[in-house]
Fold this sequence. Notes:
The complex is a heterodimer of chains A (64) and B (534). Chain A has 64 residues and is mainly α. Chain A has helices at residues 4-24, 26-33, 37-63. The longest helix of chain B is centred in the N-terminal third of the chain and has 50 residues, at 153-202.
Amino acid sequence: MDIKLPLGLIFSIIGLLLMISGIVYSEAVVQKLHFNFNLWWGIGVTVFGLAMLSVHWIRKDKTR
Amino acid sequence: MSIGIFDYLIIGIYFLFVLGIGYYLKNSIKSSEDYFLSGRSISAWVTGLAFIAANLGALEVMGMVANSAKYGILTVHFYWIGAIPAMVFVGVFMMPFYYGSRARSVPEYLKLRFDEKTRGLNAISFALMTLLMSGINMYAMGIIFNLLLGWSFHISIWVAAGIVLVYVFFGGLTSSIYNEVVQFFLIVFGLFPLSYLGLREVGGWSQLAARLPENLTKSWSTLTSASNNPMGVEWFGMIFGLGFVLSFGYWCTDFLVVQRALASRNLNAAQRTPLIAAFPKMIFPLFVVLPGLIAIVKIPADTLGSNYNMALPLLMKEYFPTGLLGLGLTALIASFMSGMAGNVTAFNTVWTFDIYQSYIKPGKDDRHYVWMGKMATVIGVLISIGLTYLVMYFNNVMDYMQLLFSFFNAPLFATFLLGMFWKKTTSNGAFYGLLGGIATAAVHYVLASKKIFISYGSEMSANFYGAVAAWTVCFVLTILISFFTKKRSENELVGLVYSLTPKQDRSMIPLYLKPGFLAVIILVLTLVLNFLFW
């Protein structure tokens, strides 16, 4: 198993959950931190996850 | 502290993945080498991140934040002096013998190089020590989640131990390594926001430094004498005690970390494992030392002073809104669990190869040893849980045992150094030199704690100098005894000793993959970091 697959999946999902939590609890997050950190960090984590997934799929196609 | 639905979801997703990885990998285990050494097939960046993550148990993470909240920026020495040089050394100079000799464990190398008794001493002390660490790790986890979230101590440790058991049982070392890599990124994503949000609120590094006394924000200039800094150590103790003996003793001889490198697919990858690990290790103070300093400013002194280990969880509580809290807690849970898994995989290997196969049942077929490894995993986890309860009821038992094991570790690096680089080191020299070093550590401890003949500025300083004494005695004694005892013939030592091992041909390896090249970059960067925070 290529480790980029589980890495990509878990961080895409966690990032998405963070983003949603930022949207759902937007008011509470902004009140605590003065900006919607959950949303931005969620985007960052998701981008990492998707990057891992893309590398995994690109490599996989090449080795076929 | 209350945690919400998103926090639970993130924790739940993590559990699901951890179990899934273990389950998925179960079909890839065909031989004992697959189970204990991942079939020596893993690429260097993966083993490198696992190398660093295996060391990043939650005790280490929370302990270093606590250390920083107590001693300030001096904590960086555990990274820049106390880890990087040793990691470079093990990668460049020692890995050719560990990996090249095809030894399956650190004690097995001792058997190949010296003899059965040195291996036995190391295997048994290591097996006990690694389970103890696993038990202490569990105990810390139970306490933290109980204090922070009100979760039941018993349920926390049994659930976490159960999950670790399942994924190590099925997937062996590969499963442990993969989960360590996931944990590594979880820690990065879960702790970076703390440093960022904290520093942002305080107003940047210069503002933070301005609010702290100078001896908490300067790493070297306060080491001129022991009374100038909160650690009570001066530069000699720091460099030779921590930077040389303790650090090299851990990073170069502890099977927990070396095992990750042995799982690499070839010698060059094995050599690069600790070197790749050195890059994140270098910047890790950003994730632990910085939060510690922020804690000094943010958390009231009496709350912080009563239990420094709570510094990290308290900061998370302070800064993390729901959702982000889930990520932070998952990072902590992950490091608790992979800290335990790392110890359990090292234990099952040393138990199976160095104790069971050597002394109890030699000569069985390979499948039998895979079975034994799985049993050792179950028993290792159960003993860890037992030790957790022992520590819970007899808190000081842990201190005594930890102390006892520290005696075993300090002189060990002298044995390896001589064994690998001086072909005239004899088996008896190594064994009795090691015993002498262990005895020295014990005697030094008694004298220093009762303040007979010797006394130090702090307990930490006493530890550093005790390690130096133990190492020196082991080193000198091994050399002396080697002059008078029987040497092994040179052709028995090919591949085990530096001067008798043919140099590898590296002309085909591109420059950026050469261990020596990476080593130079790492050392230069580390030097720069030291100067920046001088």
